[in-house]
Amino acid sequence: MLKAKTVIDKERIIGKIDKRIYGSFIEHLGRAVYGGIYEPSHPEADEQGFRKDVLALVKELDVPIIRYPGGNFVSAFKWEDSVGPVALRPKRLDIVWRALEPNEIGINEFAEWVKKAGAETMIVVNLGSRGIDAARSLLEYCNHPSGTYWSDLRISHGVKNPHGFKVWGLGNEMDGPWQVGQKSAEEYGRLANEVGKAMKLFDPSLELVACGSSNRDMPLFPQWEATVLELCYENVDYISLHSYYGNEKNDLPTYLAQSIDMDEFIKGAVSACDFVKAKKRSKKTINISFDEWNVWYHSKNKDDDFVPWTVGQHQIEDIYTFEDALVVGCLIITLLKHSDRVKIACLAQLVNVIAPIMTENDGPAWRQTIFYPFMHASNFGRGVALDMLVESPVYSNKEYGDVPYLESVATYDEGSNQLTIFAVNRSHNEPLVLECDLRDLGSSKIIEHIVLGNNDIKARNSKEHPDNVVPYLASDAKIENGILTVPLSELSWNVIRISTM
Predict the structure, then answer these.
(1) What is the pLDDT of residue 391?
(2) Residues forming beta bridges with residue 208, ordered by sequence position
């Protein structure tokens, strides 16, 4: 049996956890909006056409911020089409995803849905096919009280009070050749600076996110970050990172180690940010918005299998397995390990499109396997992240070298006096006994040990079997003389909650 040792000292703080690290993402893509959050003909639809069963699941996840409306979609998006009387809104071809955009859901409707979900909106402006004027007009429309053209237009559309959006993304994946309006780092950096400057003149308290690299394998990473930030450093607050992971080769040991790639991606981006800070002799620190991340590979061979120029097609609908849930758990742990610099993160996406929540049109909604680690972290991973001292056995991997069997992080919430340990056992054939020294915490008591495990790594949840992969409570954790001992079953996601009263 494998054995790992850890020491937890509540004074060894990585950083305060910004709750927005548990954000998500809705794009006008596939059935994320039409047939996902919005289906007016559904029996569960409310007076605005939003599915109440979907809203209930979103609330279970306790998502604090939701990025909108894209994504690739935003780089050809004309926001003016999405406001005003619905019957008068133009239908447009979405050339990015080869769909028809009816504009039944737009800025104002989405803002209402986000309020119902108990979240805030991170709104992204189009810096692909548009620029400064469209961005500042949208900002005035959304955030100015009244007395100007754009704010009074919003009021005429039935929205008296401004939305007060505070977090704004300056475009999406502008380094990508797939992007409408792709730009060089110099072109984008200058544009982001001028847009950011105009927006900060309106409201200096806005939080602005500049586009970083679309993934770690982009040829200009991390030079892209350095060049962009040299041009817009004082007018932005975050640099974005995007990354998706998969198991196309059906190589489980390598797949479970892919959080190491995320870790190196974050470190590289932080180094670029701090290089520019030093070069500019600035007192300002740029943080990370990891505003697209998830597992994505199941549906890629079906990406072109849909009817183009229609609404709400089945696109990019990964049906997740138990092993995917373990990887998502490792990725969440990695984000928490960087909570000193990662302040916003968005699981992409929220409903139907590579999402923890799936729906059937006119039918039920259910939780995918990846729903559970995300929900556990969002509900219990608050306060500060702690720098655990870890001794773990390792396995050798040709891509990632020595990989610890134990992937783990602890969070401590001083307000509730609760410690939470998130842990993944990567071993596929042996339990791992975790021994954790908690003596620094004083008197401690186990609240619960939650386990997500399954004998079939390819097990899925479905409409017919929504509870095929679900967490359960274990009763074999114990604390004696300040030492926690808890067996972690092979290939398992674990949440150990401890009261320090």
Answers:
(1) 97
(2) 168
Give me the amino acid identity at 41.
S
Query: Can you tell me the distance from the alpha carbon of 195 to that of 197, in angstroms, rounded to the nearest whole number?
Result: 5
Residue given tokens 């500060």 in the structure block = 384
Domain positions in the chain are: 2-10+386-499, 18-380
Residues belonging to the active site: 173, 292
What pairing do the DSSP bridges indicate for beta strands 23-25 and 65-68?
Answer: parallel
Give yes or no for a contact between 241 and 266, defined as CB atoms under 8 angstroms apart.
yes
In the chain, pLDDT over 70 holds for what percent of residues? Answer: 100
pLDDT at site 257: 98
Beta bridge partners of 126: none
Cα distance between residue 266 and residue 419, in whole Å: 25
> Are the C-beta atoms of 255 and 425 separated by less than 8 Å?
no
CATH match of 2-10+386-499 with 3.90.1150.10: no
DSSP state for residue 91 in the 8-state scheme = P
E strands of 300-359, at which residues? 342-348, 357-359
Phi, psi of 492 (to 5 degrees): -145, 150
State the CB neighbour count (10 A cutoff) for residue 200.
Answer: 16
Question: What is the dotted CATH code of the domain comprising 18-380?
Answer: 3.20.20.80
Length of the chain: 501
Q: What are phi and psi of 2, to 5 degrees?
A: -75, 155
Query: How much is the pLDDT for 501?
Result: 73
Mean pLDDT value across residues 434-445: 93
Q: Which residues pair with 344 in a beta bridge?
A: 289
Tell me the HSE value of 272 on the side-chain side, using a 13 A CA sphere: 25
pLDDT of residue 306: 87
Beta-carbon contacts of 218 under 8 Å, excluding residues fewer than 6 positions away, are 175, 176, 224
pLDDT tens digits, 36-71: 999 999 999 999 999 999 999 999 999 999 999 999
Residue 164: is its pLDDT beyond 90?
yes
Which amino acid, one-letter code, is at 474? Answer: A
